[in-house]
């Protein structure tokens, strides 16, 4: 057995017992598309426990989005390994990776990417429909999540009829509807006014208390970062603990 195989197995084992939900090691991403190679992540490591919330901060261009894309299986590392809930992303082909994302990972972005033609309920149910669940069961579960994020009364409204904070709540419900192991958030309060952002923070507190999923939150917002259990700074392609 090669050394890399041994290392990979120990990384998977780390996340297989449920306490460490996300582990990555030696994560390296070099973009080779332009005239010059750009090394954005350079041997980065991170572990996030079940129920733990980690903020990732860093200056513009430091590689935060690149990191989220690798953790979410939307991009492949040049080198290194990501393991989530006992599975190595490296072992999965494209189709299996798509299924894994649907089953295990919830995404929340600044501009939430809700489908304009669908109601809040249909948007929140979508990951379950994609997974092949029947509409009635999917919508029943989605309704529970809309209630959990305090927006059940807007279930039949389309995104265009909702406020920014309400849309963000629907996006959070959609991210959580599959009971994911990992939720990745990219500036989840970025385009919200202060009081709406505060209500999203309160919601995140509540979710952290009531789910055992791991959260990785990329943000420039110091108050959002301060709200997480740990704050990691991305600099020079690696993460260092700030708090
Ligand atoms: N597909 C790509 N090809 C080449 N270079 C890229 C590519 N994607 C990102 N980069 C470069 O990688 C670096 C990190 O980009 P990334 O978007 O991950 O940073 P970020 O920390 O999320 O920035 P911001 O806070 O401004 O959103 C930047 O220098 C960017 O130009």
From TrEMBL:
Residues 22-243 form the ABC transporter domain. GO terms for molecular function: ATP binding; ATP hydrolysis activity; transmembrane transporter activity. Belongs to the ABC transporter superfamily. This is ATP-binding cassette domain-containing protein. Keywords: ATP-binding, Cell membrane, Membrane, Nucleotide-binding, Translocase, Transport. The keyword Ubl conjugation does not apply. It comes from the Bacteria. GO terms for cellular component: plasma membrane. Gene3D superfamilies: P-loop containing nucleotide triphosphate hydrolases.
């Amino acid at each position: 057995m090669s050394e890399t195989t041994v290392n990979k197995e120990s990384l998977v084992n780390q996340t297989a017992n449920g306490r460490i939900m996300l582990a990555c090691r030696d994560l390296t991403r070099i973009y080779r598309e332009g005239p010059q190679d750009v090394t954005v992540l350079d041997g980065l490591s991170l572990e996030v426990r079940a129920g733990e919330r980690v903020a990732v901060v860093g200056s513009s261009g430091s590689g935060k989005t690149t990191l989220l894309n690798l953790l979410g299986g939307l991009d492949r590392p040049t080198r290194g390994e990501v393991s989530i809930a006992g599975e190595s992303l490296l072992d999965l082909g494209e189709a299996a990776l798509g299924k894994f994302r649907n089953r295990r990972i919830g995404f929340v972005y600044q501009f939430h990417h809700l489908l304009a033609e669908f109601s809040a309920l249909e948007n929140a149910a979508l990951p379950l429909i994609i997974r092949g669940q029947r509409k009635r069961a999917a919508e029943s579960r989605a309704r529970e999540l809309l209630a959990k994020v305090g927006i059940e009364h807007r279930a039949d409204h389309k995104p265009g009829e909702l406020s920014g904070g309400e849309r963000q709540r629907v996006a959070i419900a959609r991210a959580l509807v599959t009971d994911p192991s990992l939720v990745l958030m990219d500036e989840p309060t970025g385009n919200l006014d202060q009081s709406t952002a505060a209500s999203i923070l309160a919601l995140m507190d509540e979710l952290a208390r009531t789910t055992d999923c791991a959260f990785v939150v990329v943000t420039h917002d110091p108050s959002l970062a301060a709200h997480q259990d740990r704050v990691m700074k991305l600099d020079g392609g690696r993460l260092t603990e700030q708090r």
